[in-house]
Write a structure and sequence with these properties.
Length: 263
Amino acid sequence: MKKQYEPDVVAKHVPREPIPNEVHAQFLRPGELLAIQDAFPVAFQPLGTLEWHGRQNPIGCDTIKAERLCCAAAQKVGGVVMPSMYFSSDAHWDVGKGYGYGMDSVAGFQLPGSFYQISTELLKQSMLNACRNYLNRGFKLVVIVSGHNPPIQQNTMDEVCYRMKTEDGREPVVFTMEYAVIELGHPKRRSDHAGFYETSMMHYLAEDRVNMAANAGQELPYLAMSNTPPVEDASFAEGEECFALQTEGLASYAAIKLAKLLA
């Protein structure tokens, strides 16, 4: 049994097929996968959560943002979208109600739907393993995109990227938060937790799963969520505009990183 992936041997046994409109890895046939890798050898890896995002939003908000963005960018520029990961980093902290994990600390009690807790080391090792698998089977670049955006997530993924760097300094694994692909200083480059921005994104990406009436009459209508600007002002149009800018930004980001890597 040979221990190295041999593209020439593979080519003899797996003929290329036309590149399909499909970008999700799990739906691709091997011949389609090889054709995509020939054209744009990039694997997009969405990261998200199952986490409280207010009463009004689906608990998969972070993952919905990241996966849909990766799909839109791949359809625009090429590449394959790997299955989303629903475990992400967060921290225990205290804002006056006792230590809690993530938004639990803001609420003062453990919130329903927050199933994403994982040790930072386990997440790091899982990501390193996934990236090595992708690169060892024909991809040249892995673009990790997170819809869950606490500082510890940035730090953890930065370490993954650093550890995947080659000895000559090339970066086959790169990372970005979903909102950060919009240029710095742009008014639509924004992030929050279950507030105006994320609720607008859900209005656009999963409108039938948003229920703004769920907060009506509650003692704490803005429980563990942002409210500046007012979440009631969230809209389909705002989400649509942000998503279009993010799609352009991520497609450009991936193309630039791949060109630099292959130069």
